[in-house]
Design the sequence.
């Protein structure tokens, strides 16, 4: 089963970082906090503008992204924990 | 009796998932929480834009959708419990 | 005496449902709660858009509509209890 | 002395209803509450739109209008108690 | 020393009314409350619209205006107490 | 070292008024309160409009301006205390 | 590993100032407070406007900028503490 996110939403699979890896991204505070990094699994058609046009998203499937720890809504699909969030919640693309 | 939702609203019939099914969608927390998955029964004509145009909705009748557990307003029609929500409240289409 | 509602407002006469009727609409909770169903008695000229244009309303006189229990303002005209609400408060048209 | 209201404001003189009149408008609650009905004494030039245009008001001098009990600001001019409110606060025109 | 107000702001000199004058404007409540009436001393170039255009103000120097008792910011210039407010805060022009 | 403010921000150097000077501007309350008057040291390129255009600011370097006592953010540059604020926070130009 | 910030976001590396340097920027209060000064390491493509156009940012890589102490989100990449913020949070460019 798959989700096709609506409009400017994306589906993100959280990447569990080893918090002791020197090159890993860790939010400040406890090293045991869940890192807010993930992989884009699906993207919506784009953001609906005030004039009715649709603007395609800047992120694409496969992008590794950074996002706020509490962004989006968590869902479980086929036993897999995913996050549905808006592109607006994504801070940047890692690469 | 039927409801024709206005503008960007849709009528959704909640689908009761077996929470133990491996492929089912379960929101995190208690497995006994009501899953937020449903079937679109009716859609409005579209969202009225600032310039007066109407943008047709992206979801259509028959779509299986995912939505926030507290989205929309519950109504009972002909003994059937339905939810009236805005397309904006729908996170994605399952398929 | 009549009211001509302004802009995107409508005049609704609440329909008192028998809460035990199987086909009736009952909001969840107590069966004794006032049902939020009514008949449109009058409609405004339409919503004034940001550019000054007026968009005609989608509901019309005679429509049976569903609305939130606390929507609008109640007024009594010629001994009749009516509600003045905005089209935006109407969830759908019953038919 | 007169007030010329600015933009989308109007000057309303409250009409004191006999609350026992069958055809009168009485807000729900105590029959002794001040009715929210009045006569338009003056209107502004119109609402200034985002693009700078001015949209003339829909109400005109002499209209008998219905409005929320706490709408607008009360002022006393030449011993007469008046209300300055925005057209947006007017629910409908009585006639 | 003079102030040239920016954009849609105006400089108002409060007019102290004799509260016992029959033709004076008195806000409801205590007759000793400061009346909210004043004279326009200076006006800004106009309101900057979303598209960058400037809309000239409707009030002009010399207008006697009515405004909410707590509108604007009080300043003292050359020993004179003045109020800087936005045209939006002015309810109407007296005349 | 200098700051070039971004967009619609300006750099203001607060002018310490002698609060006993008859022609000085003093905000109401204690005469010992810091007066909110200053000199514009630098201005941004202008406010970015919704359509992407940039509107040049109305204030310019050297203007003596009046502003709310708590407007903007205080910074110290080369030992000098300055305020970074938006043009919107400036009430008027003194002259 | 690098971050490419989305839209109107930028990546800033905080510059630790010696708080006793006469030419340094110190926010008022304790001299031991972290100064809010940094270097731009990466910029997004630009702010997405209401009409779908993208406006390039005014800051560029290498700019030394001033920003509010609590602006943006701190992240650690390859052991380096960085801040992801919106251009809107930047008060000015130092030079």
Sequence:
């Amino acid at each position: 089963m798959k989700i096709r996110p609506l409009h400017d939403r994306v589906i993100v699979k959280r990447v569990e970082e080893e918090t002791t890896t020197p090159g890993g991204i860790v939010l400040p505070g406890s090293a045991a906090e869940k890192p807010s990094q993930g992989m884009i699994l699906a993207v919506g058609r784009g953001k609906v503008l005030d004039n009715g046009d649709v603007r395609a998203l800047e992120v694409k499937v496969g992008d590794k992204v950074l996002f706020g720890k509490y962004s989006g809504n968590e869902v479980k699909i086929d036993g897999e924990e995913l996050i549905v969030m808006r592109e607006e919640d994504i801070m940047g693309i890692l690469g």
Residues 27-35 of chain E have pLDDT under 50 and may be disordered. Chains E and B do not touch (no CB pair under 8 Å). The CA atoms of residues 66 and 92 of chain E lie 5 Å apart.
